[in-house]
C-alpha cells in the first residue's frame, strides 16, 4: 500500500505492509513502553506524524477504497479523534505538526496541488500560501510552542521555479518572512529554522544546510562529502541543536538504495550517521528529534523493503539504533515508522495492528511505562486533614503542563488541575480529607491529556492530638484537639481527674468536621491555690494527660 500522491512530498508517508522482520538491537537507555492505538473514524486506516506533550497527535485517517483520499486526524490517548473536514476541492489532508494548545500545521491536495494549511482545534483553517501567484505547491515544516509556523512554497518566477522558506504568524494570519532558494526542514522553540540550501555557497556545490535565525540572519553548513542532496527533517532546541537529515548519495547501501540518514550538531559541527538495525548499512530515515537533541526517531528499510520503526540515542559519540519492537512487548503490532517524539520520550507513528484476525494500518502512541504516577503520603492520613501527595512525570518537559486531578469520593477532594512547572518532574497538590467514622479508601486520579493514572489513599478516623488545661482565679478550663476532624457521628472524648477537687465533665463532644472543643472544670469550694490534679482525656485508644495546678 502506498500513498503515491503523497510520497513525493513527505518521506514519512511511504508505507510497506509486507511482513516485518523483527531485529535485535541495543536498547541503550530507552524505557519500556505501552502501545496505544489511536483510532480514526469507523476504524479505518490511519497514521500519526506529530505528538505534543499531552500525548495528542496529528496525522491522517480514513482512507477510501483507492487509498488516496483521507482526512486530517487529531487525536490522542483516551480522547476522541477528530477527522478534520477538507477544504473545498481538497483531498488527502494530513496534519504533520501539533503543539500543546492544539495548533497544527498540515497539508492537503487542493485542485491537484499540495497546499500548506494552519488549523487550531475549534478555529478556522488557514491557507498559508494565500495571496501568492503562480504557486504550485506549499508544504509545512514545523510549528513552535507559541504557534509560529514554518514552511516552503514553490513558485514559477521569471527565471524558472523557485523554492521559498516562509514564516507564518497566526496572530496576523500572514507570512511575515520569506527566503529564496531554501526548502524548510523545521523550526525549534527558539525560532531557529533549518533548511536545505538549493544554491550552495561552497566552491564544489556540495549540498548545504542553512540555519536562519528569527531575525533573518543566515549561516551555511556543508553536508557530507558523498551527498548529492540532503534534506533536514527536524531540529532540536537543546543538545547543541541536532538536525536529522535525509541524504541521497552515489553509493548504494545494504538496502540496495542510495538513501540514508545522518545528523548534524550545530554546536560541535559534527555529522554523525544514523545506522540501521540488524545491519548498520541499511537505509535509514531520521524523521524526528526530541527537544533535548539526544534522541531521534524514524525507521530502517531492510534489504526486503520492510520498514522497521527505529529509535536512536546518542551515546559515547555515536547514535545507537534500537528497534521499537524491542521496547514494546506486544505481538499485535508490527511497528513501521516512528515519526515524532515529545520531550518526555513519548513516541508516535504508525504500523500494522492486528484486530481480530485482520491486520490494518493504525496510528500509535508509545507512552513510557509510569508516564505519570501519584506518590504516597508520609504517615497516616486522618480524616479532616489536608495532605500533599505529588504527581510525578516520567521525565521533564520544557513547558509548564496542566495536569488534571479528580477524586470521586465524598470523603476527600482535590483541585481540578495542578500546574507542573517547566523543567520539573513532580508537583504536590492539596488532598483535602473529610472526617470519617471508620476507615475509608478514596481513589485519586491524575491525567496528562487523556492519559490517566490512579492511586488509592486510606483515610482513618481522627485521634486525639493533644490536651491543654489552664487555671486562673480559682477557675479551670481545658481544650481537646484532634489529629484530624470528627466524622459524621461526631467524637465523644472521655475526661477524668486524679483529684476530686478539680473535675472536668465526664465527656465532651466534638461535632462533625470540627477538630477541637473546650470545657470548663468544677473546683470544689475552699480548694486552696497550688492544688494539683492530673487531667486525662481518652478517645479511640489514645490517652493524653495534662498536669494542672490551681491558681
Question: Can you offer a commentary on this structure?
Answer:
The strands form 12 sheets. Strands 30-39-38-33-35 form a 5-stranded mixed β-sheet, with no helix packed on it. A 4-stranded antiparallel β-sheet has the order 1-28-27-26, with no helix packed on it. It contains 1 helix and 47 strands. The model is unreliable at 1-25 (pLDDT under 50). The protein is an all-beta fold and 551 residues long.
State the helical fraction. Answer: under 10%
Number of helices: 1
Query: Over all CA atoms, what is the radius of gyration?
Result: 32 Å
- Cα(first) to Cα(last) distance is 95 Å
> What's the β-strand tally?
47
Main sheet characteristics? 5 strands, mixed
Query: How would you state the average pLDDT, rounded?
Result: 91
Oligomer: single chain
Strand arrangement within the widest β-sheet reads 30-39-38-33-35
- Estimated share of beta-strand residues: over 45%
The poorly predicted ranges are: 1-25
Return the structural class: mainly beta
Which descriptor suits the 3D outline?
Answer: elongated
Amino acid at each position: 500500500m502506498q500513498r503515491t500522491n503523497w510520497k513525493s512530498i513527505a518521506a514519512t508517508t511511504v508505507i510497506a505492509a509486507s511482513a516485518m522482520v523483527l531485529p535485535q538491537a541495543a536498547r541503550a537507555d530507552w524505557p519500556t513502553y505501552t502501545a496505544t492505538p489511536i483510532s480514526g473514524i469507523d476504524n479505518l486506516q490511519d497514521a500519526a506524524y506529530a505528538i505534543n506533550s499531552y500525548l495528542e497527535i496529528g496525522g491522517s485517517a480514513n482512507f477510501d477504497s483507492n487509498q488516496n483520499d483521507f482526512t486530517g486526524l487529531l487525536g490522542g490517548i483516551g480522547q476522541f479523534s477528530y477527522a478534520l473536514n477538507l477544504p473545498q476541492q481538497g483531498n488527502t489532508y494530513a496534519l504533520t505538526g501539533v503543539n500543546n494548545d492544539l495548533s497544527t500545521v498540515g497539508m492537503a491536495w487542493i485542485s491537484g496541488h499540495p497546499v500548506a494549511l494552519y488549523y487550531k482545534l475549534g478555529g478556522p483553517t488557514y491557507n498559508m500560501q494565500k495571496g501568492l501567484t503562480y504557486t504550485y505547491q506549499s508544504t509545512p515544516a514545523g510549528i513552535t510552542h507559541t504557534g509560529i509556523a514554518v514552511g516552503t512554497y514553490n513558485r514559477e518566477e521569471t527565471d524558472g521555479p523557485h523554492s521559498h522558506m516562509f514564516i507564518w504568524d497566526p496572530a496576523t494570519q500572514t507570512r511575515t518572512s520569506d527566503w529564496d532558494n531554501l526548502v524548510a526542514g523545521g523550526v525549534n522553540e527558539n525560532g531557529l529554522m533549518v533548511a536545505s540550501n538549493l544554491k550552495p555557497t561552497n566552491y564544489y556545490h556540495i549540498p548545504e544546510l542553512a540555519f536562519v535565525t528569527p531575525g533573518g540572519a543566515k549561516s551555511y553548513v556543508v553536508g557530507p562529502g558523498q551527498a548529492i542532496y540532503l534534506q533536514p527533517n527536524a531540529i532540536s532546541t537543546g543538545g547543541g541543536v541536532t538536525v536529522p537529515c535525509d541524504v541521497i548519495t552515489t553509493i548504494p547501501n545494504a538496502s540496495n538504495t542510495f538513501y540514508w540518514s545522518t545528523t548534524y550538531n550545530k554546536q560541535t559541527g559534527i555529522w554523525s550517521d544514523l545506522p540501521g538495525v540488524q545491519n548498520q548499512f541499511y537505509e535509514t530515515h531520521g524523521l524526528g528529534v526530541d527537544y533535548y537533541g539526544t534522541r531521534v526517531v524514524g525507521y530502517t528499510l531492510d534489504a526486503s523493503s520492510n520498514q522497521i520503526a527505529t529509535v536512536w540515542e546518542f551515546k559515547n559519540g555515536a547514535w545507537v539504533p534500537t528497534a521499537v519492537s524491542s521496547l514494546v512487548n506486544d505481538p499485535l503490532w508490527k511497528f513501521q515508522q516512528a515519526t515524532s517524539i515529545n520531550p518526555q520520550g513519548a513516541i508516535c507513528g504508525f504500523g500494522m495492528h492486528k484486530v481480530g484476525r485482520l491486520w490494518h494500518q493504525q496510528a500509535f502512541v508509545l507512552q513510557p511505562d509510569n508516564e505519570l504516577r501519584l506518590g504516597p503520603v508520609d504517615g497516616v492520613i486522618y480524616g479532616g486533614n489536608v495532605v500533599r501527595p505529588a504527581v510525578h512525570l516520567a521525565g521533564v518537559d520544557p513547558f509548564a503542563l496542566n495536569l488534571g486531578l479528580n477524586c470521586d469520593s465524598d470523603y476527600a477532594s482535590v483541585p481540578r488541575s495542578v500546574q507542573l512547572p517547566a523543567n520539573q518532574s513532580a508537583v504536590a497538590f492539596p488532598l483535602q480529607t473529610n472526617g470519617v467514622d471508620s476507615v475509608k479508601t478514596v481513589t485519586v486520579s491524575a491525567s496528562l491529556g487523556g492519559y490517566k493514572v490512579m492511586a488509592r489513599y486510606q483515610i482513618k478516623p481522627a485521634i486525639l492530638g493533644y490536651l491543654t488545661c489552664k487555671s486562673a482565679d480559682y477557675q479551670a478550663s481545658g481544650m481537646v484537639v484532634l489529629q484530624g476532624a470528627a466524622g459524621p457521628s461526631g467524637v465523644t472524648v472521655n475526661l477524668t481527674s486524679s483529684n476530686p477537687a478539680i473535675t472536668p465533665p465526664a465527656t465532651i463532644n466534638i461535632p462533625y468536621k470540627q477538630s477541637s472543643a473546650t470545657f470548663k472544670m468544677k473546683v470544689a469550694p475552699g480548694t486552696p491555690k497550688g492544688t494539683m490534679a492530673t487531667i486525662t482525656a481518652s478517645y479511640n485508644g489514645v490517652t493524653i494527660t495534662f498536669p494542672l495546678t490551681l491558681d
